[in-house]
Design goal:
Layout lengths: L1 H8 L6 H25 L3 H24 L4 H5 L30 H4 L3
Helix pairs in contact: 2-3
Length: 113
């Protein structure tokens, strides 16, 4: 059983470089398959199948790159720091209205929640 685990580790994609190499291999196979479709089905049918073959590379490549984690140093680096969170005033999430200096306000506008 230990030998199967060792062999199984050879087929795991762990880095982005390995993912790019797999995407390159899939792209080569897709272009070759598309070329065969163009020879076997001349006209619009062959072109549609060839385009479908190459479009699959974009979908599979995106999934492969999303599944591989980015290196930790790339996440921590950057010229900008994280935005500072401001404390809420009076525990409220919205700004408070400034009191008016006029004495002719209605009771509703002077009421505080």
């Amino acid at each position: 059983m230990a030998m199967l685990k060792k062999i199984g580790r050879l087929f795991q994609i762990r880095t982005r470089l390995e993912a790019w190499l797999v995407i390159y291999a899939v792209a080569l196979g897709a272009v070759e398959r598309g070329r065969h479709y163009l020879e076997a089905y001349p006209g619009w049918g062959g072109w549609l199948l060839a385009v479908a073959c190459t479009a699959v590379v974009f979908v599979a490549g995106g999934k492969l790159l999303d599944s591989v984690s980015a290196p930790a140093r790339a996440l921590a680096s950057g010229p900008y720091s994280a935005p500072v969170r401001r404390r809420l005033i009076n525990g409220r999430n919205r700004p408070t209205r400034l009191p008016s200096r006029r004495g002719s306000e209605s009771r509703i506008s002077r009421r505080r929640d």
